[in-house]
Amino acid sequence: MVDTAEAEQLIRQGLGRRGMRRANGSNGRSGTSSSGRELSAGAGDVLSEGIQGYGRLTQSPGLQRLKLFLNMTVSPILLIAFVPNLVIFIWFTVVHCDGSYWTMLTKLFSQRSIITGIADMWRLVNTPSTPVVSILVAYGLYALVMMRLLPGKMVKGPVTPKGNVPVYKDNGFVYYLVTLALFWGLTYFLRPYGYTPSIIYDRFDEVLFALNAFSLVFCLFLYLKGLFAPSSSDSGSSGNVIFDYYWGTELYPRIFGFDVKLFTNCRFGMMGWALLVCVHAVKSYELHGFVDSMFVSVALQLIYITKFFWWEAGYMSTIDIMVDRAGFYICWGCLVYIPGLYTSPTFYMVSQPVILGLPLAALFLICGAVAIWVNYEADMQKQMVRGSNGNCLVWGRKPELIHARYCLENGQEKESLLLASGWWGMARHFHYVPEITLALCWSIPALFHNILPYSYLIFLVILLVHRTFRDDEKCARKYGSFWQQYCKKVPHKMVPYLF
Ligand SMILES: NC(=O)C1=CN([C@@H]2O[C@H](COP(=O)(O)OP(=O)(O)OC[C@H]3O[C@@H](n4cnc5c(N)ncnc54)[C@H](OP(=O)(O)O)[C@@H]3O)[C@@H](O)[C@H]2O)C=CC1
Ligand SMILES: CC(C)CCC[C@@H](C)[C@H]1CC[C@H]2C3=CC=C4C[C@@H](O)CC[C@]4(C)[C@H]3CC[C@]12C
Predict the structure, then answer these.
(1) What residue range is the signal peptide (predicted)?
(2) What range defines the domain where residue 188 resides?
(3) How far away, in angstroms, is 344 Cα from ligand 2 center?
(4) By Cβ atoms counted within 10 A, which residue in 56, 170, 451, 480 is the most buried?
């Protein structure tokens, strides 16, 4: 994972200035000083008093440069080269290796070289056919039209480091319900005529190929748009082309008024996730009839995604939207990684069905449902406390709050509430524990024949642990001593008494 927080940190110390000035000079749009604040804007952060206290400021300039090079150039290159292959590895393993990574590796390494092995694997991937491209284009256009047409209140996102307040149409939940109803309606009425959504399962290699190709080019477009035609002042270059492509050059780009991240993350990515697990359920039903393990996994994922869309406006105040710019990481991630990796447990279960029996199925279902509830309640506690300015109850008591002051980049002072009770009093990122437990609950129905159905879980653990560090650094920079106060009160990052 690229340590962007660290990269930002190093840039703030001046190591990235040369590149930044060059970039600023070349596009002339960023309007930043030479102090290198542009990238920090991408981190959704602000000037803070806490920055001077960081231990790594004492590192030697050579070491800092090396870290900067690793974080901003080497890691992004490796990720950009590796992850588009990863989704194909998963497809290849499920379809050609009986779901076994071991068989997949044996096949790849049995060639003259690993490169030949990977090339051979890619040769099995079909280029997208007309039906697949038509379905994907129709789905993308449908999502855009619905974003505009469906009713919803206009809601304000959090104020950005440059002082902008993005506005969104809060119609995600209606969109989700309408889309699922359409999916099941079409599946029911068109099956007698020989049309089934399982074509998406059968031709998933084409789907991944098409999404990969489109997304890589789309990210290039976003990179250029951020440099030459940004939608807001929350944009600019770090001076490093690779990092800019990976991380993005705009915080919330809009194209013809459409919010790009709302489209890629929610309306395409998250909705696509829901539709794909439904496709897997249909395919599994066609092949084997009702299979309880598939049911448990699909049911939990759908409840989770329903919860996501119910809370979509709250998602606008999370790291993805406030911190991450629209680049390869978030946009390619939501357009390709979610369909390719996040849906892998049920993709695997189609060809490796397992009968769990009622007691086990019920156990996984109940544990998963509890995990969803805890995760949701944690997200809601934060939202409720901030929405009511602390005038609410958390677990039946007045919330414990820290009134944290911070500054925007333009020097304007603001105040925000940090909740230090409820789930946010257990650990600073306790809500990641139920998130991980849940992923386990929808993967474990595949039982333990292979690692593949746990790929998402493994990725999630890495992502969330890394995120605890990233977010702590971001908040320490933003809130300075107020964050330290919170850390004193709630000393653990994620797991009480452990981590
Ligand atoms: N399945 C997946 O792949 C993933 C799922 N998730 C889920 O997405 C949801 C959002 O998570 P995530 O994006 O990581 O962000 P969080 O919900 O953890 O939001 C982090 C932000 O919340 C604010 N904050 C931090 N501590 C407090 C506090 N004590 N009181 C009030 N506000 C606080 C800070 O922002 P501010 O600047 O406003 O103070 C901080 O930057 C979670 O449910 C998580 O489990 C997350 C990542 C991956
Ligand atoms: C390029 C890749 C190595 C990494 C791509 C990662 C992204 C696909 C994911 C990073 C963070 C993820 C999410 C954050 C928070 C979410 C809220 C939750 O309620 C639903 C899931 C999600 C939207 C989730 C989706 C994937 C990421 C954007």
Answers:
(1) none
(2) 4-489
(3) 15
(4) 480
